[in-house]
Automatic annotation (TrEMBL):
InterPro entries xref list: ATPase_NBD, ROK
Transmembrane stretches, start-end: none
Taxonomic lineage from the root: Bacteria, Bacillati, Actinomycetota, Actinomycetes, Candidatus Nanopelagicales
The keyword Transcription is annotated on this UniProt entry: no
UniProt feature coiled coil, ranges: none
GO molecular function: kinase activity
Protein name: Polyphosphate glucokinase
Record-linked Gene3D superfamilies: 3.30.420.40
């Protein structure tokens, strides 16, 4: 039997998990799980372990997380360091627990199988990139995710969401889910348009992909306004990319 991959897409508001065969065919879609708070590293390890226990065919795991991930370790993670979730005050104890936590190695030791832990936008990207030119993926969900590839090679992760964009606000706060709900899709789409317009001269991508839970909420007029082609990718890429992520040339 070939590789059977569990992919877990860990978001600030929800966790999605699916099992795929070696040809990226879905074997199991687990029920959507509203992200429980407070979320400690051990809590997430337990959630992922329970998925593995539910299907004996799984022999490797891909995990996509928000934030800065290096070699499977957490450099910085948003949302989970907050006791009550996104846009609430960080909890010093949770912040300490998550800092430098080696999720990849911890899961490997517990589950006794290969584990791959990446930024969630990088897993999204694995599902859609062609491996030609400079390809950029932006994901709009609880906040902003970003991944870049040059001829299929994964570039070092840049946490664009931490940059300030207007009135001293971070991009996450300016473009995230709370702002979208407050403004409505039309006004929020104007912000998306403005943000992409400002990012392009910094990156000058050959291809831009937009994904995440709010990608479908961006107005058609905003998308049509760009001089370059923008492709909307389904939110399911957050899990379907978990198979191809193993082939990324970092």
């Amino acid at each position: 039997m070939g590789n059977v991959t569990l992919t877990v897409d860990c978001g600030g508001t929800g966790i999605k998990a699916s099992v795929f065969d070696q040809h990226s065919k879905v074997l199991v879609d687990f029920p959507y799980l509203t992200t429980p708070y407070p979320m400690s590293p051990n809590s997430l390890v337990e959630i992922i372990s329970n998925y593995v226990l539910a299907d004996h065919r799984i022999n490797r795991v891909t995990v996509g997380l928000p934030g800065m991930i290096r070699n499977g370790k957490i450099v910085f993670i948003p949302h989970y360091i907050n006791k009550r979730g996104p846009r609430t005050m960080p909890d010093p104890h949770l912040k300490k627990l998550w800092h430098s936590f080696d999720l990849q190695n911890t899961l490997h030791k517990k589950l006794k199988m290969p584990i791959l832990v990446l930024n969630d936008a990088e897993v999204h990207a694995a599902a859609v990139i062609t491996g030609v030119g400079l390809e950029t993926v932006l994901t709009f969900g609880t906040g902003l995710g970003c991944a870049m590839f040059n001829n299929g090679k994964l570039a070092p992760h840049i946490e664009l969401s931490h940059a300030t964009v207007r009135y001293g606000k971070t991009i996450d706060a300016w473009i995230g889910e709370i702002s979208r709900r407050r403004m409505g899709n039309q006004l929020w789409s104007r912000r998306v348009k403005a943000l992409i317009g400002e990012l392009y001269p910094m990156i000058i991508w050959d291809k831009l992909y937009i994904g995440g839970g709010n990608a479908q909420r961006i107005s058609k007029s905003a998308l049509k306004s760009f001089d370059y082609k923008v492709k909307i990718i389904p939110n399911s890429a957050g899990v379907s990319g978990g198979v191809k992520a193993w082939d990324l040339r970092a």
